Amino acid sequence: MAIDKNAFLTLLFPLQLIFGDVIQRQTNYTFLNQGYVFESLAATGYNQQFLTKIYTIGSDNPASLSDFSQFTLGFSYQFSSEINPAYQTNPGSYPQVSFTHERAEDALPQSLGIAIPFSKFCFGIGLSQRYSSSWGLFDRTTFEQAGLSMIEKTIVLAQINILTYKNSNLFRTNDSFSFGIKFSNNFLRSEVINMSDSNIGIYDYNVAVGFRYKTGKLGFGIHYESNSVFEKEKTRSNYSFLSTGALPSSINSGILWNPIQRLNVTLNASLIFWERIPSSRQNEFRNYKNQVITAINACYSLYPVAITMGILSTNRNYTEQSEENNSRFDYKVIMPIIGLNVSMFDFQADICYANSTFFSAEWQKQHIVKFAIGFKI
After folding, report:
1. Which of 42, 215, 267, 279 is the most buried (most CB within 10 A)?
2. Does the pLDDT value for residue 129 go beyond 50?
3. Is 81 exposed, middle or buried (0-12, 13-18, 19+ CB in 10 A)?
């Protein structure tokens, strides 16, 4: 069975290449499920509200910056295994097509954070890779025939500024309330390998607001983060290209429970609003259903070591694709997490391992390792 390249791309991606006429062209950038980074993954599990690490402040509730009472800095590196090809035509058919995905920029730190407390306030600066994808479309029939072969690298880097206010003994003795705001400058960079003049960079921004409340052995936090829409027009020769892309808004919440001394249990839930991404040229920018992410973690501390075990679960489906396509490109992830933190004086070293190979959909199976260090001054 012959496969048309444009038909294949249209089937594979909810973001399509759209050609209006010979003068104007619009490109909706392809953000794959697999390229979205679990930014809040840490040695304490997957948390966005509590047990905050300095290197995850860019993706967590801005109110969680109140956890830092000293000048603190840290950074992390994250490595992910390549995912097996997502699609291959049936044996004997022509051409033999496969689709691959891997992280685009392992050489860059995954994240960096700095916390500067003063009085009841804390100011934070962060950097984070929000999205990192290198996907390839290959004709596997022969090595010589490369009519369908292409590799596209896309990365979204965020520079984050956070301001948090904290107040204690607000409603009762030894409770704490914190409120935070976050402003993120996002930069999209994309290129098609071996295609001249394919590089493009687009800037946009988004904001987040959140609060946390802790009293006794319980805590609750929630924050909202707006979407980020990328749009840029580029002219080459007699052609005008409008490139658009977007990251969705979300609402995120979490609970902290400290049942016994040295043990913290956290429960996190996020709702990602894919169906509300705006577009200047299309009524529906994405044809994804909204996505729910849940995670539960248990962290036990015995100085100088803390050990965490947790599990993350999420799923996302198309709104219009057939059942066959939903199953073929299913985004079902069930990911056990193990974390280890070692603290010595004002130095911390973290390692986190997550494995989605056991229970996840076929094109979500991978190993993730994250290393981080932090300092208090």
Report:
1. 42
2. yes
3. middle
